[in-house]
Model the fold of this input.
Amino acid sequence: AERDRGAVLTMAEAGSMVSKDEVASRGVGTSSPVETFCNAPQNEVKVFFGGMMFLTRLPCPGFCDHHPGYTMRGFSWFPAIGAVIGGWAAVWFDAAIAVWPEPAVAACLSTSATIWLTGCFHEDGLGDTLDGFGGGWTKAQILRIMKDSRVGSYAAVGLSMWMMAKVALLSRLASVPTVWALGGSSGVGPALVVAHSVARMTGPPLLYTSEYVLDDDDAKKDFYIWFGQFRRVFGPVRLVASALSAAAVAFAILPPHRAAAVLGTTSVCTVFAGLYSHSVLGGVMGDFLGATTCITETAIYLILISDPARLAAASGPLLRLGVTVLTPYVYGRFIRKSK
Done:
């Protein structure tokens, strides 16, 4: 572990494959201050396409750009855009399994198609977070590693395990035939639509309730400095709207008890992610939000394949697991306070 941490730090300190000047040359997306943007009339069409441009590689109208204000407000459309991404994944899965009746093959092709559509956006955040949180000892080291464009050992191993888990979970979901029915769907297709939609609900509450962590040496700092004003730019109405849209997708597609379980799981993931990021960084940042989306998506698949009766019978092992996981955390807190 010591050698692994040192290797990741050495890689980060060596610099990025993409130079800081090259990143900075892409611009901020606006020269206007936050005050001017907040007082200007809202253009919801531009807000929607700002979210679409941020999450996917789909072409958008010429009047759209990477304006940080429209990008932030576009978070309110993330669950709806996520449902579109999930629908894309579902179509690929259904087509693949019709040709090759092997769920793992269909899951791989569907996941690959989704990664192409999103430009590996959230997966990149997961990889950077794994490298940074795994290889960095201090906040400064974590931030330095996370902005490095190369893949370290933590990201390589973690992304591989996450991808295998996702393929395995989708394959398990395929044991149930896909049925589309309002408030009563089942199978892989509905699970993909719901998971991609609801998992993207985690971003707005984390940004709204947390400080946005900025790295003074980051070439994109002028863009992300806007995210420090997220609560002001986004507003409570959009926060509620994003949660309601995710809930609407879940209840429109899944049976009520399954939809409630998915939303409950997402809420737990959001709260835990916020607490964890605060304990390490003192706030949240973009890569961590992407990692939270990835982990929440797999957690949703897990809850959808779970059997409530089996979960009740497994209370003993789950309790022991909880104690085992918490013990190093409590021990570490005790040691740090005793120094």
Remarks:
- The CA atoms of residues 206 and 271 lie 8 Å apart.
- The radius of gyration is 20 Å.
- The chain has 18 helices and no strands.
- The chain has a mean pLDDT of 88.
